[in-house]
Amino acid sequence: MINILRSFLEFLSAGFYALVFSCVYLMTTVSCAQSVTKVSEKSEVSTPLISFEVVGDSVPNPLGGRVGVAQRGEKIIQTRDGQCTLCHAIPGFKGQVGNLGPLLEGVGTRLTSGQIRLRIINSSLLNTQTIMPSYYKVQGLENVDPKWRGIPLMNEQQIEDVVTYLVSLKETQK
Ligand code: HEC
């Protein structure tokens, strides 16, 4: 008799725990889902890009007046997964590189900082068919995950860091 009573009580308490567990589970999933929608709603409206002036084939002024740091730019280029080195060979980069884009060695001699800036901001302004991603653009893109909508691939500071690094890649005299 006592045994029956005990297993009945165990059965009851297991049910109680299951109930508590499913409540907690439900509460967290619902609130998580809510916070995800909040983030994506926010990112669509809250990150306006800084406006910039295009002169010929260049953007002469640093975005937002930021001052680039070459070392940081080098790091961005060398480490950013699946980005520049997918298409460009870069001096000092040891990993596998693609050759869809021109070598970036000596680019600081071939192009001015403004010309480099425009090509990173939005290469399609020069070549509508380009395969190079626009790193500072949020409109007119396709298949963007809702949580990244309104957020450019690089922010103003990252663009300036990369520009400063590329400007430092001068043609070496042979
Ligand atoms: C999917 C391939 C691809 C990726 C990724 C890419 N580029 Fe390019 N890039 C190109 C191509 C192709 C060109 C040649 C011009 C054109 O077709 O628009 C180019 C041109 C350039 C130029 C002008 C070079 C010159 O000598 O005229 C610069 C500078 C440049 N890319 C920098 C970068 C940087 C920095 C990154 C990463 C932040 C990057 N690219 C990522 C494909 C790519």
Ions, cofactors, ligands: which are bound? Answer: heme C
Proportion of strand residues: under 5%
Query: Rg to the nearest angstrom?
Result: 26 Å
Overall CATH class of the largest domain: Mainly Alpha
Helical percent range? 40-55%
Number of domains: 2
State the CATH superfamily name of the largest domain. Answer: Cytochrome c-like domain
Supply the CATH architecture of the largest domain. Orthogonal Bundle
State the major sheet.
none
Given helix and strand content, the structural type is mainly alpha
- Given the C-alpha coordinates, what overall shape results? elongated
| Total strand segments | 0
Can you count the helices? Answer: 6
End-to-end separation in angstroms reads: 98 Å
Low-confidence stretches: 31-46
User: What's the pLDDT, averaged over the residues?
Assistant: 82
CATH topology of the largest domain: Cytochrome Bc1 Complex, Chain D, domain 2
SSE topology string: HHHHHH
Explain the overall architecture.
- The chain has 174 residues and is mainly α.
- It folds into two domains: 1-46; 63-167, Cytochrome Bc1 Complex, Chain D, domain 2 (Orthogonal Bundle), CATH 1.10.760.
- The protein has six helices and no strands.
- The chain has helices at 2-46, 70-79, 84-87, 107-110, 113-122, 156-167.
- α2 (70-79) packs across α6 (156-167) and α5 (113-122) packs across α6 (156-167).
- The model is unreliable at 31-46 (pLDDT under 50).
- Heme C (HEC) is lined by residues 77, 83-84, 86-88, 100-102, 107, 110, 116, 119-120, 123, 127, 130-133, 135, 162, 166.
- Heme C is lined by residues 77, 83-84, 86-88, 100-102, 107, 110, 116, 119-120, 123, 127, 130-133, 135, 162, 166.
